[in-house]
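Lab notebook: predicted structure, single chain.

Context: the supervisor wants predicted structures on file for every construct in the current expression panel, including those that have not yet been purified. This is the next one on the list. No modifications to the sequence; it matches the entry in the shared construct table.
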Amino acid sequence: MNQMTDKLLNQDEIDVLLGDNSQESEEVEILSDIEKDALGEIGNISMGTAATTLFTLLGQKVTITTPRVTVTTIKELGELYNIPFVAIDVRYKMGLEGMNLLIMKIEDVKIIADLMMGGEGRDVSGDITEIDLSAIGEAMNQMVGSGCTSLSEMFGTMIDIEPPRSFEISLQDNKLDIFESEEKIVKVSFRMVVGDLIDSEMMQLIPLNFAQEMVTKLLKADGDKIESNKSEGANMNNNDNEIKNKTEYKEVSSGNMQNIAQNSEIHRKMQQETVTVKNLEFEQFENIEEPKYNESIDIIQEIPVEITVQLGRTMRKIGEILEYGPGTIIELDKVLGEPLDVFANGKFIAKGEVVVIEDNFGVRITEIVSPSKRINRK
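Prediction complete. Output recorded below exactly as produced.
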């Protein structure tokens, strides 16, 4: 009896053994596998588009891996991560009603900001600054904005966001106005690789109710597409009287692949029976001079055309623009006395020089550019 008692587990040991399973069981009840897969697909498509946008901004190869979806709380995240982060608050204003937080390491944010301002992304020591937060906010605005285009196609409705808000946070402090400490939230984690500069985790934190709302809308959009495809298929079958008279269509389930294959084979054979083969004849074209018309253009003379005169242009880095202030002089690419470019609805049509008419500036046309030499300049 004593030997059996020594082998029995106490309650603490039982809790340790069952702890992970209990947590997994609770998570399954909160978020089903179908909902996880749907959220993963949403993140996969939106972040795939965002990676392309980030590549354009940074000039570095960007890879964002397939997302991993879990359910957690801010308290649990605080116990896992003991370093400060940068949070980007993204709120949807059209198509979806909700928000999510993008969580990134401070070092990653400083690297991205440095690359955006023309740096090499390697000397990023020091504390994070307002310029860094502004830069990552603009980067995320373009990344998530491009992701919204993909989501719009996925959900079948226009989706848009408000300008993101960036700020520094510490998950250990549990001081977030957005989430309660014990509130269940969905964490979608990605591995983000930027050239040889960044290889770390980026997290997307979504309120549970908003995550479930996105899944519901996604499944509804998929259902509408399936019904639309069925309707289009029915219309095509009604119009194809010859095939309808020769074929008896039966409703089959998605799992009955044998009947689908048989019906496809019948349809293929019937198409082969009705195919008519003939030699290809090419239409002969002759060189015909383009006709010239002498009709009056009075009918279009009242159409307004926007005339624009370009004094000059230049290109500067974001870091230089942020240093501008009152009195800053910007040097343009035009040399003193060089003719100005005149555009009509964006089309380069002429050159001219600046004149003063009473209290207004004007442009005297000095040269009309021939149609063969005109190019679009922006």
